[in-house]
Design brief:
The protein is an alpha/beta fold. Helix content is 48%, strand content 18%. The strands form three sheets. A five-stranded parallel sheet has the order 2-1-3-4-5, with helices on both faces. It has a five-stranded mixed sheet with strand order 7-9-10-12-11, covered by helices on one side. It starts with 6 loop residues before the first strand and ends in a 14-residue tail after the last strand.
Length: 377
């Protein structure tokens, strides 16, 4: 370690003590600051930010305990390690010093080698801390660059996708044979799925960064489910999967209609992806004690218990033998974030080979404080 890069503040109102410590630490090539008044320590630390403070306990004016307390109460100085230097061997003083935030306690008369060893340990820890902080800042910078690049790429994709969808819509207005119509339906469904995926990517970024606007509206569960089913109608028909809907009647919920309908689109689309032709997907809703619950149930291969712990995390993916690895997890991550934005929660219940049941609770805002211990029935 290059000790010349370390700055130590020595605080003591006895010139002889300062001179002895200075001579000892100077031989180890440390840089030093000196202060004899405890009242000025916080100010000096704020200006110079030393790597370590050696603080005498017994001084005129405010003592070392009070100086340590002030340092640890100051947001600028709180992270600077403090070693107490004292002529007392009182256990009470040592305990009090550690409780106030000191990292070590040296008793006078001290052994020079011991002092250098204790100081060296703290300086090495500070150097390691600075290195970790630099690495963290670099990782954060790289993450911001990755995020910006992803957003720019997705924004650039939206325009050609929009043009493709318009072109397909115009093509659909023309008459064609059965093969043309089938290919057109497939292309339209694929373009719409791609457009939804780009929107989901952008919304995940907005929610995670706290930039997602919320437009709360009063709407019915039936309306939300109908929006989702209308969006996915073609895909269900093409795959030969039957969807059964049973929303609660005469009930209204307060939510962002676009976000919650897209949650349902993602859950129903996920159920469809893992359903074989001839199978059924069920979507329903009912009142719960603290809000309204929506349930999407499929007859697919199910999800392994271990995978259920992280399936809602961004970019997660299930393993072969439950749900196939092509499940990117973006849609389920969006569902979790959108519901957390509403104060709600989503979970899954499943066993391999027995399908999956995805449930989410949209809480009543008036009863949100009671929303504890999910899942609820």
């Amino acid at each position: 370690m290059d000790n010349s890069q370390g700055l130590i503040l020595l605080v003591d109102d006895e010139p002889i003590s300062l001179k002895m410590l200075s001579a000892l630490l100077g031989k180890a090539s440390y840089q030093m600051l000196f202060q004899s008044r405890g009242e000025d320590v916080v100010k000096i630390c704020g200006l110079r930010k030393p790597d370590l403070i050696l603080l005498d306990l017994m001084m005129e004016g405010i003592d070392g305990f009070e100086v340590c307390r002030r340092l640890k109460s100051d947001p600028v100085c709180a992270g600077i390690p403090v070693i107490i230097v004292s002529a007392t061997e009182s256990q009470e003083d040592k305990i009090k010093a550690f409780r106030l935030g000191a990292v070590d306690f040296i008793t006078k008369p001290y052994n020079p080698d011991e002092v250098l060893a204790r100081v060296g340990t703290q300086m090495q820890l500070q150097a390691a801390k600075r290195q970790v902080e630099r690495q963290f800042e670099e990782l954060r910078r790289l993450e911001q660059m990755r995020e910006q690049m992803m957003q720019m790429t997705i924004h650039d994709l939206r325009s050609p996708l929009h043009n493709i969808m318009i072109t397909l819509k115009l093509m659909g207005e023309r008459e064609g044979d059965d093969e043309f119509n089938e290919l057109h339906r497939l292309a339209s469904a694929s373009a719409k799925a791609a457009a939804n995926l780009t929107a989901t990517f952008l919304d995940i970024s907005r929610i995670e960064s706290g930039r997602m606007p919320m437009l709360r509206q009063t709407c019915s569960p039936a309306e939300l489910i109908d929006i989702a089913l209308t969006e996915l109608q073609t895909q269900f028909q093409m795959r030969g999967v039957k969807v059964l809907s049973k929303p609660a009647e005469g009930r209204e919920v307060e939510c962002d209609r676009d976000l919650i309908s897209r949650v349902l689109i993602n859950l129903l689309g996920n159920a469809l992806k893992f359903s074989e032709p001839g199978k059924e997907v069920h979507v329903s809703s009912h009142d719960a004690e603290v809000g309204h619950m929506f349930i999407v149930r499929d007859e697919g291969p199910g999800i392994a218990e271990e995978a259920q712990k992280w399936i809602f995390q961004t970019y997660s993916q299930t393993e072969e033998g439950s749900r196939k690895p092509h499940s990117h997890g973006i849609g389920l991550a969006f569902c979790r974030l959108a519901l957390e934005l509403h104060g709600g929660r989503i979970w899954v219940e499943s066993q391999p080979g027995a399908g999956a049941v995805f449930t989410f609770l949209l809480p009543d805002r008036k009863k949100r404080t009671a929303h504890v211990g999910l899942p609820l029935s």
